[in-house]
Amino acid sequence: MEYRTEEEQVARLKKWWSLYGNYIFYGLLIIFAGTYGYKSWKGKQDAILEKSSALYTRAFMAFSDGNDSDFKATSNNLLADYPDSVYADFTRMLLAKSLLKKSQYSEAEKYLSEVINKTKQKTLKNIAILRLARMYLSEGKTEKAIQLSKRLEQTDFGFFAHELYGDIYLRKNEHENAAKEYKTALEKQRSKFPRSSSILENKLQFVSKNIPKD
């Protein structure tokens, strides 16, 4: 009886396997393939991160040391080989900073715009927007500076936008409007950083003294 029971169990198992064996086999195959694919992808990403990090470190050191030729060569290599890595965004910011120091605005705009359009890091994107808006202001492109700064108003960088508006009014000698913007900027800054003290206070004091008395 026990033997027959075993025979029945084997027969049932064979029947069950004939019905579902292929599904199990291909299911396991997919799982193993997916696991291998993920490990392979992760390995490639880790390699990209490591190599791009090394190149960025070298570029940053060259930038800090004033080694312009090595800075440019290393930066170009990084952007060519790893254009979508996070370190490519950092490199574009460095390149823009270097170009701004030389008043090469069109080239700096190119790199800052690439960061704004490509980066997935919100903070870095906002920094790039702010720098580009400041660059426009220094070039006298007031409207472009204002339009770009509006993108910062509802972010943690909102106070920078209002500071820039204040600077624009100050250039026009509209001290009352400048004071309003600096006050708004200061309030927004303190809501984020309660103990902060900055140049905003000095700007507000300066324009407030120059508001015409009725």
Supply the key terms.
214 residues, 9 helices, elongated
Short description:
With 214 residues, the protein is mostly helical. It contains nine helices and no strands.
Outline the secondary-structure elements.
Layout: H1 2-65, H2 68-81, H3 86-101, H4 105-118, H5 122-138, H6 142-149, H7 158-171, H8 175-192, H9 199-209
Helix pairs in contact: 1-2, 1-3, 2-3, 3-4, 4-5, 5-6, 5-7, 6-7, 7-8, 8-9
Summarize the structure in words.
This protein has nine helices and no strands. Among the domains are: 69-140; 153-214. It has 214 residues and is mostly helical.
What would you call the structural class?
A: mainly alpha
**Element-by-element helix/strand order:** HHHHHHHHH
Helix content: over 70%
Please, what is the average pLDDT?
Answer: 83
